[in-house]
Amino acid sequence: MMDREILHIFLRSGPARKYDVGHFSKRVVAENPDGSGLLFKTHFLNHAILFKYIVTDKFRTICDERPISTIIYSPYDYSKPGDGGESFVFSEENFQRFYQYKLRSENLDVASYSADLDVLTVLSSVPTFSPIIIELAFGRANLRPSNIYFDLTPELRVKLNNHMKARIRPLIVAAYERSSCDIDRAVEEMTSKLLYLEDAASVMPLIEALRLDPATALEVLSSWIGITYFEYEYAALQPQLRGFSEWISKNVNAKDSLRPNESEYMTTLSQFVRGKMKEEWARVVDLSKTYRETYHALVFKGDIKRFADFLFSCRNVYWDLGETLGRFEQTTIAWRLFERQQMGQKPSYRALISLFTVLRKLLGAPPAVAVPVAEEAMGENRGGFSTLTADLF
After folding, report:
1. Who is most buried in 29, 68, 184, 305, counting CB within 10 A?
2. Long-range own/partner contacts, residues 147-150 (CB < 8 A, 24 or more apart)
3. Considering its fold, how many domains does the chain have in total?
4. How far is CA 109 from CA 41, 92, 118, 144, in A?
5. Structural domain harbouring 62
6. 88 beta partners
7. pTM
8. pLDDT digits over 184-208, tens only?
9. Of the ranges 63-72, 149-158, 241-250, 332-341, which one carries the lowest mean pLDDT score?
10. What pLDDT score does 40 carry?
11. How far apart are CA 217 and CA 204, in angstroms?
């Protein structure tokens, strides 16, 4: 599914694209030598590495509504995952076949298989492995793995929860605007229920206020919470992307020593990378503009309809932002690794070509969904997505 070079980049990825179960399993065993508290019942899964990846049609076995597949990668040597291994695109059918193949048995241990299928289903239900995203997904599924598997410091957990509470509060105020109840108490109670959605009844006042279909409301609200979290992720990633953009300009434009054919090839590769980054960043900025404007219309003008309309398309936006975040994260990781390898020296033509070739592979797949082009520039900074600037590339 992916060549060795791309595998190595994925193995260096951050949480947007990679979930190293084996890494967390070692920490669990260090605390509990008997293995209690491990995420999976089956041995090979506790040493697996999961990736988020857009799989070509040839290999796609998931529902078309989910543009991002989850790949389960089982290394031949758990201590050297870059040396190769076996993998499959997650689906219940594929998992059953691989499970029987790895255990060399036609008979399923039904209890273990079912428990592990539930965990993999949760991990496949979200577009990234960002810790707070998967923690909330497990909470909604009423599963409670060890906190080790979420890898969140108490400080970061509080910061992210406060960020999401601030975004959630206006929706709850809107839901109770005609009620005589204690708004502050309602905010606390509803926020807790919303962050750990388990059933529509618990958040019905919010569902009714936002005019959501109860049949799909949980998925819509979960997607909106994910988008709210991506505010934080994109704002944190923006300085690295700006640094990468400036680095490209500095290194690619210095081509005096290159032969004409080398210069032309370098220009072609670098323009493709910059063009894709610019295109995808423009989509993120446009989505942020739509989200910010509809949200502000709700908060400052009481216009629920525009925000409700945005929520209606929220699911596709959520997955699209998750996929683009993965591309950006991998690009900056590949660039930082390249910079460390150069040790402050001017990179050679061959080294630059190698980097841009890898980046072309990482950025080459089409975007998950189409996004309309924004007609206006970003407004003043107000935190979150509103801090994103449109001129990165």
Report:
1. 68
2. 148/24, 148/27, 148/28, 148/31, 148/37, 149/24, 149/28, 149/39
3. 3
4. 10, 15, 14, 22
5. 4-130
6. 72
7. 0.83
8. 777 778 777 877 777 788 888 888 8
9. 63-72
10. 97
11. 9
